[in-house]
Amino acid sequence: MSQKFDVVVIGAGPGGYVAAIRAAQLGLKTACIEKYVGKEGKIALGGTCLNVGCIPSKALLDSTWKYHEAHEGFKVHGIEASGVTIDVPTMIARKDQIVRNLTGGVAALFKANGVTSFEGHGKLLANKQVEVTGRDGSTEILEATNVIIASGSRPVEIPPAPIDQNVIVDSTGALDFQSVPKRLGVIGAGVIGLELGSVWGRLGAEVTVLEALDKFLPAADDQVAKEALKILTKQGLKIRLGARVTATEINGSEVTVTFTDANGEQKETYDKLIVAVGRRPVTTDLLAADSGVDLDERGYIFVDDFCATSVPGVYAVGDVVRGLMLAHKAMEEGVVVAERIAGHKAQMNYDLIPGVIYTHPEIAWVGKSEQSLKAEGVEVNVGVAPFAASGRAMAANDTAGFVKIIADAKTDRVLGVHVIGPSAAELVQQGAIAMEFGTSAEDLGMMVFSHPTLSEQLHEAALAVNGHAIHIANRKKR
């Protein structure tokens, strides 16, 4: 006899596990299905983000930045640290322990909230039945009043560079190198490519990033992208734009990459090659032909503004639906869906989802860029405050970058906050909170910011929007 649940969630990544916990908190009998097997051969909750994405990459970014600081940044403070070395396997082991702690934490939260876990592959059948196939091949059917699909995404593979997870790796393989490659190639100058390139570049790898687009970080504000390219290049990343990879050839423990750019066909040889050209939704064997759920032309599950699919009572959230592939977007969608199932009128603001690149300095933004607003014909005023004018940034020897605030020229409403610099993600979140409440630049300028802090540059940028900056020179009005 099949088990019955109010809510069955397929996938225990950020969207799925959050949806399951919130549904259970709202008094709904909830089950969550997960098939991902971790390094230790056991089912691991948390999805890509916790296991092979956001969290492990941040662990490596923090470890390698500390190593870089010991090598390059201590002297200015009067600290002598000679003979500093990195034990890569220890660094990787620390990363793995953090992942274990967090995935175990999700399991504990399931238990605390009364979520029933199922290990195996979930597949939606007709009439909101969900088939669970265990690792041993056994199957069982769950009856659901509501289903939430949160199957996530996987790295995109490209024919010219087939992954072998040895010499040519995807983002998952790049988190597990046991030594520093002398020559590292990265295909893709997006968030993942830049973060992983930075990790291994700080440890001494010669990093070349091959980006097919002619424009660097097109999703970011142009001014921020230009500054990021300058800083990352200065840090040693060779970023080649308009470089299209056409072939790869593995010879023993190295790979020769053929690509074309403005100078014609070129070849370069690397010890490791990371393919980081984006991610695609996971829908393999997810939907039975008669499930009634539709995919759009790009392979995403079709949903409305509230994540409802074409079948009443079936929802989908996170990377498997339209919108940004971000853990925090998936989490909030999971909460919204759980609350709507419980009868609440929840919704989320898709216009204010922050984006972050965890290089050093961090790059982050929320709202619209200056170029997109100009393309829409919106007149804007812009305020920019560099960290070079921040006493707190100077004290920390971390003065690269700036805060940029864009406001509507007619209403003064803040339409975008863009930061490249120390703690950019945290500063942008302050902007997001203010924008959620419809802030004007004047509102931010009238608030008291503690001194000395990095957040004062947000204050200064807000003042600069209307030519009222105190600690930097105001741009003359044309």
UniProtKB/TrEMBL annotation:
InterPro entries: Class-I_Pyr_Nuc-Dis_Oxidored, FAD/NAD-bd_sf, FAD/NAD-binding_dom, FAD/NAD-linked_Rdtase_dimer_sf, Lipoamide_DH, Pyr_nuc-diS_OxRdtase, Pyr_nucl-diS_OxRdtase_dimer, Pyr_OxRdtase_I_AS. GO terms for cellular component: cytoplasm. Its EC number is 1.8.1.4. The active site is at residue 451. Binds 1 FAD per subunit. FAD binds at residues 58, 122, 319, 325-328. It is found in: Cytoplasm. One of its GO terms (biological process) is 2-oxoglutarate metabolic process. NAD(+) binds at residues 188-195, 211, 278. Keywords: Cytoplasm, Disulfide bond, FAD, Flavoprotein, NAD, Nucleotide-binding, Oxidoreductase, Redox-active center. The keyword Transcription does not apply. GO terms for molecular function: dihydrolipoyl dehydrogenase (NADH) activity; flavin adenine dinucleotide binding. Homodimer. Belongs to the class-I pyridine nucleotide-disulfide oxidoreductase family. This is Dihydrolipoyl dehydrogenase.
